[in-house]
Design a protein that fits this description.
Elements: E1 2-3, H1 6-19, H2 26-47, E2 60-65, E3 70-75, H3 82-90, H4 96-103, E4 129-137, E5 144-149, E6 154-160, E7 166-173, H5 188-198, E8 206-215, E9 230-238, H6 255-265, E10 274-280, E11 286-292, E12 309-313, E13 316-322, E14 334-338, H7 355-378, H8 380-400, H9 406-409, E15 415-417, E16 422-424, H10 426-431, E17 440-444, H11 448-452, H12 455-462, E18 467-470, H13 475-482, E19 484-488, E20 496-503, H14 514-526, H15 528-538, E21 544-547, E22 556-561, H16 566-573, E23 584-589, H17 594-604, H18 608-625, H19 633-644
Parallel strand pairs: 2-8, 12-14, 17-18, 17-20, 21-23
Antiparallel strand pairs: 1-6, 2-3, 3-7, 4-5, 4-7, 5-6, 8-9, 10-11, 11-14, 12-13, 15-16, 15-18, 19-20, 22-23
Helix pairs in contact: 7-8, 8-13, 15-18
């Protein structure tokens, strides 16, 4: 027996027990090695006229023997001689494929795609095998040799028998333990599923002998009540698809084929609403096939949902969901990315954080954004349905980035226009603004119907300005994070004008004239005692009581000063631990409304109880209009009843 060197023994133990975290990828690694061996022989046939090999005859065979507890991966590729076995398998982390790839980088072409680069994938077999035997015969050689090891002390290399060129990797599985069921790999179903999952797009046929059923011919003398009989038989079948749909030219793939691939691979029963294809060449190359689902995944907004795109390297699945490839605000996008240029770690199970990955992710993000913008402009009905499903995440992307992503995402947003009675973009809002409008106005609440009836919304509409009605809990947080929206000048596209985003229930909207301001100040000064009495009646429920400059038909309205609006208070107070979140409430009083005269009369008559009663009723009415709960519904009902006696 040839002993592994001390360093090799340590590395082998590390690879078997630490580097690979998912045992079932052993088959992926062995099939990838077999594909490399076949590719090398095919390359040799292209460069050496003496080698007569038909690509159609090249294949990989997977088989198993339950009684012997073995799994065998065979290929008819280039094969190895005695020295190759000693060098490639006896020296840990030596990669013959990497050497081949480096030496023939300029001549490989598109027909050759060497997968293995690290020389450690073979040893993943020891995660499931107690013994591994490799029987190989090099192309053109007369003799075959075997390499055998238990992955502990060393290995043996000796002469063996093999009918033709190629390699057999024979795994004798470990005995089952309480933690691991190794016998599960000794089944047709399990091996087929692993091939389809990890090696479905290996470029050569991966074949297995599988069990099938067929109906027997009906006997000529069968009675009328004859029931069909069936027989089981075994047949060599190709398990993998070989050519991935994302590598085919877009012009040669129908939308129906894309839809079927999406529904099959991503387990959805609905067609995608958008299909995005990317083929990039240059300093690094990759293909991407992305889908925007037609419906919201049931777990999209749950903590269990995991975003990411399936990552392939040279058609071999590396990660089912690579989170780094899509930002959180595009977490609904599904699809695959395939690149042969990515730098993987030695187990292929995880990626090194490198500039290539970041560059691919950046380009994919840009492509998704561009395609959604095109959908917005060319298929508005479809885009509005999409935004209804996934717009919340885009808004949250602006909020969670503290507004840093607003330049990339703001023009994808849709809000309901109170004036136009439909969903519009911020750019469409700005385009319809009358001359002289200096801000974009919005109102936040739980429904379009209630917001449209709010007194402050009506006041802004009466002045000729539109109001965006925001009904999702993230809306106001998104608006606050954006702060403003920049619009290009029609005459000078390079010149931008930033319009502040203002909540109509917030502080100063800048809608009043100087005369209206002066009139309000005069009323406040003249009725200083009344406003003090009203503030005293409400106590710390409000920060102040003030004369309104924005109300027309309603007696009072509740607004807020400071960073927390009434809607923010409502949303935040619904979360555990946020009971103390309060806005700085302001009760605005309409001095032009008849009720104000009633309040003044009660104050002038020295009827403090009536002032307190009326103030409490008006405050509670303002709460109800805002969709907020009142402190004591019974007390409010009794107060209203007093007015009716």
């Amino acid at each position: 027996m040839r002993k592994f060197k001390t360093e090799s023994k340590k590395l082998l133990d590390l690879m078997i027990n630490s580097i690979y975290t998912n045992r079932e990828i052993f088959l992926r690694e062995l099939i990838s090695n077999a594909s490399d061996a076949v590719d090398k022989l095919y390359f040799k046939s292209l460069t050496d006229s003496k080698v007569e090999i038909s690509k159609d005859d090249l294949a990989i065979l997977v088989s198993f023997d339950k009684d012997a507890r073995t799994i065998t991966v065979s290929d008819n590729g280039i094969g190895m001689d005695k020295d190759d076995l000693d060098r490639n398998l006896g020296t840990i982390a030596h990669s013959d494929s990497l050497e081949f790839k480096s030496e023939n980088a300029e001549t490989q072409g598109e027909d050759i795609d060497i997968i293995g680069q690290f020389g450690v994938g073979f040893y993943s077999a020891f995660m499931v095998a107690s013994k591994v035997k490799v029987v190989s015969r090099a192309y053109g050689a007369d003799a075959a040799y075997s390499w055998e090891s238990d992955g502990v002390e060393g290995y043996t290399v000796k002469e063996a028998e093999r009918a033709s060129h190629g390699t057999d990797v024979i795994l004798t599985l470990k005995e089952d333990t309480d933690e691991e069921n190794y016998d599960s790999y000794l089944s047709e179903y399990k091996l087929k599923s692993l091939i389809k999952r990890y090696s479905n797009y290996v470029r050569y046929p991966v074949q297995m002998e599988v069990e099938k059923t067929r109906e027997l011919p009906k006997p000529e003398d069968a009675d009328d009540d004859y029931k069909p009989e069936f027989e089981h038989y075994r047949e060599l079948d190709t398990i993998n698809s070989m050519i991935p749909i994302w590598k085919r030219p877009k012009s040669e793939v129908t939308q129906e084929e894309y839809n079927e691939f999406y529904k099959s691979d991503f387990h959805d029963f609905s067609d995608p609403v958008r299909t995005i294809t990317v083929h990039a060449e240059g300093s690094f190359s990759y293909d991407a096939l992305l889908f925007v689902p037609g419906r919201v995944p049931f777990d999209l907004y749950s903590k269990d949902y995991k975003k990411g795109l399936a990552l392939y390297s040279s058609n071999v699945l590396i990660m089912e969901k690579c989170e780094e490839l899509v930002p959180d605000y595009f977490n609904f996008v599904r699809g695959v990315v395939d690149s042969q240029d990515l730098t993987l770690n030695i187990s292929r199970e995880t990626l090194q954080h490198n500039s290539q990955l970041r560059a691919i992710a950046k380009r994919i993000e840009k492509k998704i954004k561009s395609d959604l913008a095109d959908m917005r402009d060319t298929d508005r009905e479809g885009y509005e349905k999409f935004f209804e499903n996934f717009g919340r995440g885009i808004k949250y992307g602006i909020y969670s980035s503290y507004g840093m992503k607003k330049d990339e995402l703001a023009d994808l947003l849709l809000f309901y226009s109170a004036k136009q009675d439909k969903m519009i973009t911020l750019d469409e809002y700005a385009s319809a603004m009358p001359e002289g409008q200096e801000s974009i106005f919005y109102a936040a609440g739980d429904s379009v119907e209630r917001l449209a009836k709010m007194p402050i919304v009506s006041t802004v509409l009466d002045k000729g300005y539109d109001v965006l009605l925001c009904t999702e809990d993230v809306d106001e947080f998104c608006m606050t994070a954006m702060a403003d929206f920049a619009v290009a000048d029609a005459d000078d596209p390079d010149s931008l004008t930033a319009y502040p985003l203002k909540n109509v229930a917030g502080g100063n909207l800048g809608l009043e004239t100087e005369e209206e301001k002066e009139a309000a100040e005069a009323v406040a000064k003249e009725n200083e005692d009344l406003f003090s009495a009203m503030k005293e009646a409400l106590g710390d429920k409000v920060a102040k009581v003030a004369v309104s400059t924005r109300l027309s038909g309603s007696p009072v309205a509740l607004t807020a000063e400071g960073p927390i609006s009434l809607e923010m208070e409502r949303v935040l107070s619904g979360a555990p631990g946020n009971d103390d979140v309060k806005s700085e409430r302001v009760l605005e009083v309409n001095a032009e409304h008849p009720i104000f005269e009633t309040l003044k009369a009660a104050q002038d008559a020295g009827d403090a109880d009536k002032v307190r009663l009326y103030t409490d009723i008006l405050y509670n009415q303002a709460l109800l209009v805002e969709g907020m709960p009142i402190d004591d519904p019974v007390e409010y009902a009794q107060a209203v009843a007093k007015l009716m006696v």
